[in-house]
């Protein structure tokens, strides 16, 4: 007899009030969460992942919910608010995506964990509550929990705050934990720490975990089963290995094909992209809800007229006893098509070899320090934040330099200095061979014709009150290049260049999806025909399918226009796919740089090795067997950097020399350089003897 599922959703339908008629977000969904299992729920934004589970728990505002949500046999949708309050936190808990917004900013961390304990255990003494709270903080890997318990959310890093959220979620050992995108906003190193905590929690308790995410690499390493949602309906569900190796729905196959991987691929390869956008209202699409975007849809035919039922999908790696189901009329044909090919390069894009001999922009020994007053007004102490410290890099025509590192490493500050949004404290920025500090006012105004910036958030970087034509015309008008005849033609040409039609010019930015808005942002940056684009996390806020389209677009534009890119990112898989060279930043310094192939296959700096080790790989066999290096702690404060090597406080190879001597960059065999006393990869001939001499001098 099979155990009763912890959560059973039956005919769950969720709708919201619309202008004329209700908008259906989840449609007649049936889904079980098994006892003690980790169920990953994946899909694009708007697929209904979060809406499904928040609605089942009575946490979705403004929603009309019908059907059943049975938690250990109790129908949550029929429960009163008082009954739900008793269940939440005790039998079911939620780990929200944004820990900073979820934690109380005016309560100490320890008090918030204690509150989660006492709300369901009124018989515990104050000492018992404190002991339990510290035990929970220790369990989720919070160092020095006695000290951290007295601190407030803003004093903790993002990874620390997320671990506090996990401590609160497990305080009462619930039967079900819903983790809603718990690692989306985190660096890969902190993401690895949080996933490790969740994995240990799952191993040490009998809780079931619903892991809502769009990161299929994370899913490959942690999930027992995968449920793929599209348009508020279940597209496919099965054991993780079945879904990854024998995808039986075109949408699942498309998502997997969209992914760049940190262990394979590289510049010159194109990613598959799923054209179109998910439907806003499921009921507006007849037949299969995915058919307007499906490469296998047969039109006219059942795809456009009949909703496909969930059918058994038998695959070569079908896990014993775990049903693999797919909602596709042609599920048995998907395995033959799951190796989805990437789109061909547009015919108007020239296949020319990039020129890497002409340096367009460079930073030479730039530093950026920020003064900060610490403490109370009466006892204020002036300290210096060393955000960037003696960084040198350059971008040549037609090449992409990837700049990677954790949040707070100084990447965006470097990007701002290159486009004159911040002035260096010391060092030089040279544009086309001329020092930026010597530019006249007229030359500074004309800097936009040479260098342009593409922002991370396509939603907040476009003026919502302007049409797309006005947004694109603005750079031309500000630089005296607009005329009534050529201007609209330039707008239309640039829109076509980024894959948008001419009709888009008359619409406002709010009428477009996230990927389309980012294309508009790129079009705006291209209006003045710059030589360099500085792209600050341009795809981090996008779904995997949309991200693939933007990355293909950037590759096409570079080959067509010869523009150089500084590509700032924390996603090392994306960086491998798009970059020629990579510079790795840690605590304001570049610790390693080199060509993509050498740096990804033979990293020399321990930090680079740890970063690459932390990136999840969307392959269950590889992800679950490979060794991982999980860095402990966070970056030191930029107001008080460690002596010697700044990475030594988190480095497993650190020795006395690392605390006393700051490592100088040395050449690495295979190209590039590394700033480490004990690099992993061999250094160039002559560098070994100089390092030995420094050690002998240090130790007498």
TrEMBL record:
Keywords: ATP-binding, Nucleotide-binding, Transport
CDD domains in the record: ABC_NikE_OppD_transporters
GO BP annotations listed: peptide transport; transmembrane transport
GO molecular function: ATP binding; ATP hydrolysis activity
All copies of domain ABC transporter, residue ranges: 7-256, 372-612
Classification via InterPro entries: AAA+_ATPase, ABC_transp_ATP-bind, ABC_transporter-like_ATP-bd, ABC_transporter-like_CS, Oligopep_ABC_C, P-loop_NTPase
Signal peptide stretch: none
SMART domains: AAA
PROSITE patterns: ABC_TRANSPORTER_1 (PS00211), ABC_TRANSPORTER_2 (PS50893)
Gene3D superfamilies associated with the record: P-loop containing nucleotide triphosphate hydrolases
A Pfam entry, by short name: oligo_HPY
Family: Belongs to the ABC transporter superfamily.
Name of the protein described by the UniProt record: Dipeptide ABC transporter ATP-binding protein
Organism: Amycolatopsis pithecellobii
Upper classification of the organism: Bacteria, Bacillati, Actinomycetota, Actinomycetes, Pseudonocardiales
């Amino acid at each position: 007899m099979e155990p009763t599922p912890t959560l059973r959703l039956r005919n769950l339908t969720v709708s919201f009030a619309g202008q004329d008629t209700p908008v259906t977000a989840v449609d007649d969904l049936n889904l079980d969460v098994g006892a003690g299992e980790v169920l990953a729920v994946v899909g694009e934004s708007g697929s209904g992942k979060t809406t499904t589970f928040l609605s089942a728990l009575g946490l979705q505002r403004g929603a009309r919910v019908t059907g059943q949500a049975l938690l250990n046999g109790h129908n949550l949708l029929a429960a009163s608010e008082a009954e739900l309050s008793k269940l939440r936190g005790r039998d079911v808990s939620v780990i929200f995506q944004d820990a900073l917004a979820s934690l109380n900013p005016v309560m100490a961390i320890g008090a918030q964990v204690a509150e989660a304990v006492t709300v369901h255990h009124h018989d515990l003494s104050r000492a018992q509550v404190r002991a339990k709270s510290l035990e929970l903080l220790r369990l989720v890997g919070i160092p020095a929990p006695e000290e951290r318990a007295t601190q407030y959310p803003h004093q903790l890093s993002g990874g620390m705050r997320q671990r506090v959220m996990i401590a609160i979620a497990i305080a009462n050992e619930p039967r079900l934990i819903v983790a809603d995108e718990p690692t989306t906003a985190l660096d890969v190193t902190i993401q690895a720490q949080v996933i490790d905590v969740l994995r240990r929690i799952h191993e040490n308790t009998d809780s079931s975990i619903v892991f809502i995410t769009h990161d299929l690499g994370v899913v490959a390493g942690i999930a027992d089963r995968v449920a793929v949602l599209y348009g508020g309906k279940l597209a496919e569900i099965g054991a993780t290995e079945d879904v990854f190796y024998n995808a039986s729905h075109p949408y699942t196959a498309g998502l997997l094909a969209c992914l760049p991987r940190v262990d394979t691929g590289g510049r010159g390869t194109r990613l598959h992209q799923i054209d179109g956008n998910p439907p806003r209202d499921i009921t507006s699409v007849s037949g299969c809800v995915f058919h307007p975007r499906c490469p296998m849809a047969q039109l006219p035919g059942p795809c456009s007229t009949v909703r496909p039922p969930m059918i058994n999908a038998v695959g070569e790696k079908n896990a014993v006893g775990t049903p693999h189901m797919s909602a596709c009329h042609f599920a048995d044909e998907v395995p033959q098509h799951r190796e989805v090919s990437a789109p061909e390069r547009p015919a108007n894009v020239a296949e020319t070899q990039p020129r890497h001999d002409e340096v367009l922009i460079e930073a030479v020994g730039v530093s950026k320090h920020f003064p900060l007053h610490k403490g109370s007004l009466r006892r204020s102490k002036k300290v210096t934040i060393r955000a960037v410290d003696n960084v040198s890099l350059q971008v040549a025509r037609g090449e992409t330099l990837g700049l990677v590192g954790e949040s707070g490493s100084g990447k965006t500050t470097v990007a701002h200095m290159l486009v004159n949004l911040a002035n260096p404290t010391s060092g030089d920025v040279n544009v086309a061979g001329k020092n930026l500090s010597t530019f006249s006012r007229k030359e500074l105004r004309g800097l936009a014709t040479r260098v342009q910036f593409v922002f991370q958030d396509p939603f907040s970087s476009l003026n919502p009150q302007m049409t797309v034509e006005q947004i694109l015309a603005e750079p031309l008008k500000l630089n005296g290049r607009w005329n009534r005849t050529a201007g609209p033609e330039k707008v239309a040409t640039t829109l076509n260049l980024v894959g948008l039609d001419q009709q888009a010019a008359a619409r406002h930015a709010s009428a477009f999806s996230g990927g389309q808005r980012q294309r508009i942002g790129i079009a705006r940056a291209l209006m003045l025909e710059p030589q360099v684009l500085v792209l600050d996390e341009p795809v981090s806020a996008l779904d995997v399918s949309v991200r693939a389209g933007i990355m293909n677009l950037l590759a096409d534009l570079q080959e067509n226009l010869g523009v150089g890119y500084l590509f700032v990112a924390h996603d090392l898989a994306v960086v491998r796919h798009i970059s020629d060279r990579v510079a790795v930043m840690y605590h304001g310094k570049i610790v390693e740089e080199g060509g993509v192939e050498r740096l990804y296959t033979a990293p020399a700096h321990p930090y680079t090795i740890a970063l690459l080790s932390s990136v999840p790989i969307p392959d269950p066999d590889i992800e679950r067997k490979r060794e991982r290096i999980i860095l402990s702690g966070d970056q030191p404060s930029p107001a008080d950097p460690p002596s010697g090597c700044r990475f030594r406080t988190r480095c497993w190879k650190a020795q006395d020399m690392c605390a006393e001597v700051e490592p100088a960059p040395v050449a690495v065999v295979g190209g590039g350089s590394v700033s480490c006393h004990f690099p992993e990869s061999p250094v160039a001939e002559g560098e070994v003897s100089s390092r030995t001499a420094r050690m002998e001098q240090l130790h007498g």
